[in-house]
Amino acid sequence: MWYKRGCFCFLLAILILAACKREDVYKGRTVVACIGDTCLYKDETDLMYAIYGQGMDSVRFVSDYIERWAVEHLFYKKASENVALTVDIESMVDRYRRGLILSMYQDGLVSQQLVPDISFGDIKEFYDANETMFEVEEPMFRGLLLKVSDKSPNISRVRSWCMRRSSEDLESIEKYSLANSAFYNSFLEEWRTMSDIADQTPLTEYQLNERLKKRETIEFRHDGYTYFISADSLIQNGGRKPLEMVIPEIKELLVNSRRADFIKEKKRTLYDEALEAGDVVLF
Description:
The strands form two sheets. The chain has a four-stranded antiparallel sheet with strand order 4-3-6-5, sandwiched between helices. Strands 1-2 form a two-stranded antiparallel sheet. The protein is built from ten helices and six strands, in the order αββααααβααβααββα. The radius of gyration is 33 Å and the shape is flat. Helix content is 58%, strand content 17%. Helix 2 (42-52) packs across helix 3. Among the domains are: 2-82, no CATH class; 137-235. The N and C termini lie far apart (68 Å).
């Protein structure tokens, strides 16, 4: 392996030395490697190092980059010699080029002329009209999880705080958890899956869900710890995700829809104008 790599580096060295003699031909750009009429220049390797090689050994990075560049071009040259440039390939290249130009043109039109004004009313209307689109696939809830040592003081007060969950109670829980090295996970403003929270307890997802369906706040002991879990809101399988959770998703859908309508209208206008001007002739 080292022998092949050494030979390759030796070959590259020869190419580089030969290329340096041609510096004037390439208007002052320093050539670092050539394969036939295709050359790689020092300013290109410098740019690649500036983008991708910061913190790496510059000599090693450039050497590896030159090798990758050479291998890619050699492999492409070999492929070109062995794969006939058929009509199918030309057609695929043409379709890709047309698609790329169309995409860039459409993106330019949209960014310059379309400013989608998506209101909360638009989002709510879409949400209400597409209930099944936002069904949850597993139970979710908002609440809190507190794990304290059985030897911690004032557990009865902790129980009361978890059951009431007023702003003062939540502040007390946070202070208590810091003072007693307790594990505290508050997600009262964030929807979490049942499995995610169950993974932080000895309970299975099913056990946790069944208990929270019966009681808003549950308490149990395991291996020297007392667990308190409270659910402010609970959604079962088949229920609908809350609106606040899907606002970004709906907004993106509406923007894409308006973008599609905008492009469709532009194409229709272009066609109608071409018909009127006689640029399109129908027989």
